[in-house]
Amino acid sequence: MQAILFGASGGIGHALVTQLAARNDVTCVHAVSRSPASSGPNIVSHTADITHEADLAALAGSLKAERDIDLVIVATGLLSNDRGLSPEKSYRHQTMDAFEQVFRANTFGPALVAKHMLPLMPRSRRAVFAALSARVGSISDNRLGGWHAYRASKAALNMLVRNYAIEQARINDQFIAVTLHPGTVDTGLSQPFQSNVPDAQLFTANQSAEHLLSVIDNLAPADTGKCFDWAGKQVPA
After folding, report:
1. For 2-235, which CATH class?
2. What are the sequence ranges of the domains in the chain?
């Protein structure tokens, strides 16, 4: 099995690359990030920005001869940064700049990954496309409000992946497309928001990667189009 991981320089992404590369059933892991970040046996490093379509087109062209990518994972995401971006507590705090930044990273980028990677995946055996989402992207589970751009970007991502599931099922009845909620992980993305998280509910990147790969391994075609949390429980739409 060959896998390709987008966001290989991030905490969860790096852990996923390392764990996939160590597996006996994985022959190669293509690790993609904006700057070379992963190396080692069975790991091929690629440089690409998922919000730059030309990068993804070039990457797809370089992989086209292989045409056997059984697993695609998009492990990128944006919630806040040190340049003033932070989750909105009220609709009064919404800005076009924040929406553009968050949707580019959380929705548009993964959508472009799908555009260029789905054609490289097999049509006659099990294949999985997975993108990291978040429980706060669930519309029916939203009880607190706020975090407008982030919530909306993840809800939109969930809808896109549902679309891909429907479309790919027409050409491969063993294809699975899902979004995954990794829980709260001790990475740069969640660090400013960890103060109220109990220690038992704060995962290391390695723990999160183990959970996510276990969920992926246990997915069946009937699961396609859905969102699952780190424990394998379905997150409502």
Report:
1. alpha beta
2. 2-235
